Every structure is written in C-alpha cells, then in structure tokens.
## 1
Amino acid sequence: MLNILASLEQIFVSLEMMEKTRIGVTLSSLSRRSDDVEIQQRANKLLKLWKARAKKAMRRRARRVETYGRNYADYELWTSRIATPGINVRRQVEAGLVL
C-alpha cells in the first residue's frame, strides 16, 4: 500500500480527474480505516496536497469566469482535459507505473 501512495505522490492528478474518479473519497476512507500509522499519515498528506491544488484550480476558474465570461471557462475546462498530465493516469496504470 505504501508503494501505491508513493506512486500517487509522484503523479499529477488534475481537478477534473479527482472529480471523475472520486479518488479523494477513497484516500479519505483509507486514512481513517487503516491500522498502519504511516499509511494514515501519507494518505492525509496526499489529501491535503490535492485539496490545495483543487482550491487553487477552482479559484483560477472563478477568476477566468469573472474576467472572460462563462464561455471562456468552458473552453478552458475542455482544453485542460486534453492537455492535463493527470489524464494519462490510465496509461500509467496500464504501463505498470501506478497500481
């Protein structure tokens, strides 16, 4: 389990990927239910990192909506799905880089 958490720490997971996979819910459950203190700590650390990224991404989206309007925010969201490194998680799993 620790090697999976270490792998997750090394990859970028976009806000869209977090929303789609709900991986944060899984990590939260793991951090609460695990008997291993190190697993709890690493899962909590990863959750904090991802929450900070998510808040930053949401603030960035809100500023763009205020500045450019809703259509720009939709376009930006669509393009981020194409260019976001987090989208390659499936390929990384298939290649055996992440379990």
## 2
Amino acid sequence: MRNRLHEILHRERPSNDDLPLRVVGMDEDEAVELFETLGSETTYRIYRQLHEEPKVPRELATALDSTIQNIHYHLNKLEEADLIQPVDTWHSENGVEMKVYVPVHDPLVISFGSHEDQDQIQTLLSRVFGLLGGVSLISLIAEFIAASATSSDTTGSDVIAESSKSPASGEPHTLFDNLVGAVLESDPGIVLFLLGVTILSVSTALYLARREPSVR
C-alpha cells in the first residue's frame, strides 16, 4: 500500500505555468472576500504550497502537519473564493479519489488603482511578470516577510544598538542599512522580488509619463 501511494504521489502532475494573471481592485467586493479567506494562516499556507507545485490533500496534510479533514475544509474555502481548482483526479489501489489542486491565477495582485486603470494595470503587470518568468508575487512577498522576521530575530538587538548611536560618533551603519543587508542575504528569492518591484516601478512611471499629456 505504501509503495502504491508513493507511486501515485510521484506521478507527473499538471504545471503551474501559463496561469492567467488576476488583478483585483481594492474597491471591489471581491477584495474583501480574498482578505477574509487568506486571513487564516492555514488557508494561506495551503495557497502558498499550491503555488509551489500542484498537490493532493494528503501531501498538504503532511507538509502542514494537519489532518485530511482540516485540509479539505481550507481547500473548500479557497475553491469558493475562486483561488484554486482541481485539475486532475488520481485513484489509489482502493479506489479512493485524490484531487490534484492548482491555483486559478498566478500571480494574484491586489490593485490600489482606480477602476478605470484596471485594464492598463493588467496589461502592464502581464508584461512585467512575463519578464520575470511568471513568478508568483504572493509567494515572493511571503518570502520577503518571513525572511525579514527571521533576520530581525537574530540581528534585531544589534540593529537597534547600531541605530541608536549618535551621528556624531561617525558610525556608518544605520537601521535601514542593517535591515536591507539582512534581507538581501537571507534568501535569493527576495532579490528577485526587489528586481520585479524595480521593473514594475519604472514601467509604471513611464506609463504615467506618457499618459500625462493626454490628461492635460
């Protein structure tokens, strides 16, 4: 039975490549539902796991050290919010069905722009994430936050001590310098995230600069 399960879990599974971009405006009712759904830590962790690779509930239960029943509860929440979907069904030797879940959209972006700008924002982000190879923004942000929290645990006291020194002492390091250094050294994925933000910022600036004459 164990060998059969191992064989099933190592089958070729669907890819997360070429999933459509989803932009949700903050003024939309849909944004409230997304925040409520992902506000649960377990639901959010499952969503991150599925962005890494399509998985069946048993794999998620093992990864999160949870029960199958609990995993199904959170999967149902994600499905109702149109965040994930089953794309395949595997069967064990006992005929038990195991659905393979993937995100519906990758990346998912919450936009603070006006409703009129949604189409332009979607086009702009599609180009940016095309350059980045379709990396999931939500995963990178999570890595950024996690790495920042980890680095603050190990270096927080040193950072505070350095930043509290008087400028007259000639100490070159500041709180910002220490935090940036700790974040960049913690995970290569964060560097990619910062690169993406830079590209997005430059692209947005160019878009607004070109649009300004027409507004006048």
## 3
Amino acid sequence: MEILAPPSLTRFGFNSATILDLAVIKDFILPFSIISLPELYFDHNPVKITLQLKITTLHNSVTTHTDWTKFQNYLKNQIDYRPLKINSNTDIEIAMEKFTKNLQNAHRFATKTVKKSTATYIHANIKDLIKTRNKTKKAWQTLRNPLIKTELNRIEKLIKKLDKNSRQKDKTEELEALNTEDKEDTLEKSKDNTQESAENPSSTGRKWICIF
C-alpha cells in the first residue's frame, strides 16, 4: 500500500497552508502522477490524479459544461448543513458518503451535455488571467499583503471587462451570421419565384376554374 501526495500545497491560508488531499493505492505498477491544480478561486485546490492505464477510448463528439455558480448555489440552498458528531469510524464513513453524494448531486444539477462544436470558448488571454488571479488569490490568503489584494482586484476587473467584450463580440458575430443566412434564404426564394413565373406566366395572376 502506498500513500500519494501532490508535490505542492493543496490548502492555502494564513499560518495554515498545508497538504490536505492524499490518495492511497495498492498493488498498482503502472505509471501515475498527482498534482495540485490552481484552477478554482478558493483557498483549497482540487487534486488531479492521472493513472496511465492501457485502455483505448473512443472519440466522443460531446462534452460537458458545468455552471459553477449553479453548483455553489445548489450546495448553499439545497443542503442542510449541521454540526457533525463523529464518535466512531462508522460515523466518518457515513459523513463521507453523505458529503460525496451531495457533491455528485450538485455537479449533476449544474452540468449539461453539449456538442463540442458549441462548447463555450474562452479566449487564451482570459484563461491566462484566470490562472494569474487564482495564484494571486492564494498569495493573498497566505500573506494578507494589501498590495497583493490591490493587484487581485485589478485582475478581477480586467477579467470581467475582457469577458464582457468577448461575449459582446460573440453575440455580434452570431447575429451577423443569422442575418447572412436570412439574406441567402430570401435571395434563394426570390430566384425560385422568378424562375416559376418565367416557366408559368399565369401563376402570377388569378386562375378562374369553371365547372359545368
């Protein structure tokens, strides 16, 4: 049996930074890696464990998109948090099972399946800023330096500005594409009507049918 831990911290805080997240493996001989990811805007990093199994997976044409705001709101509003009374190993197992189930339900609620072609695109500049923001946030949580807090606020404002501009640009391009499609449809219908009129002149006027 072997205990795995990431090489960098997973919990950040003033005088409380440490590695909280571990993994246990047994009789596993294939290559693996474990890293702490500064992906979220919190004082606790998610941990990614990669097990290099020799399995071939088929290409999937769909992906998933998680709305993390909905995820957080679900946990805030739907879960009744109460102080835990842990007196035995069984209590720990029950608490962990409930915790895991709550996270899974929140993720299921906030996640939808989308085609890869329509997945949300985030500009590379914004991605880099988000990574910088997350690192700066953790530095602020650890050091409590006012200058770091000022820089964090500046990055936040810049991300919001770039994101707003990017969304407006996407919306404009979408509307332009729709307008182009409408014009093409109108032009095509106009051509069809012109051709029909040329082939059948009476189609442009009234038809009178008399039955005796």
